[in-house]
Amino acid sequence: MAAFLLRTECTWNGLEAMPSETASVSVDEHSTGITLHIDAPYHEDPAPSAQSGSLWELWEWEVVELFILGKDDRYLEIEVGPHGHYLALRLHGERNIIDHGHTLNVNVTIDGKRWKGHVDVPSHLLPEKPWRANAYAIHGTGEERRYLASFPVPGPHPDYHRLAFFRDVAEFTNA
Fold first, then answer.
1. Domain span at 87
2. Can you give the pLDDT at residue 41?
3. Cα separations in angstroms, 22 against 51, 52, 62, 71, 97
């Protein structure tokens, strides 16, 4: 079935990202949902103190995120960190969380200066098509914090919930 790939090649406001910090998220669609394949630099940011698994406020840590927007401004936000933490939020309208805390099958490995993640997302969490999407990566601490995006979300500060800047998945579908 359809597959698409997003790369975080710019900062949240559209400046070119350093090639060494670019992450990619490829998505394979299948009969039971989607599988995310993450390939990202490992920045060695401090790890959350919580055990691996679902973690609220994961966006405060080193993370790669995929947002999939469907009909009626319903969307899914999936976040994955290099230490096996993840967060899945379903939303209806910008920043309006319907639910969270979903259990996902997540497998993460760190290999030197890179990490890879594989995430199975069941179809019941996905919004109704057609889909629009954007991917993001966050790393660093304090003044060195970096916010990257596949497609810029310009404004006064990083805001990944600016749905108007998501792009139609058909624009970057490989199949």
1. 3-172
2. 97
3. 26, 24, 13, 29, 28
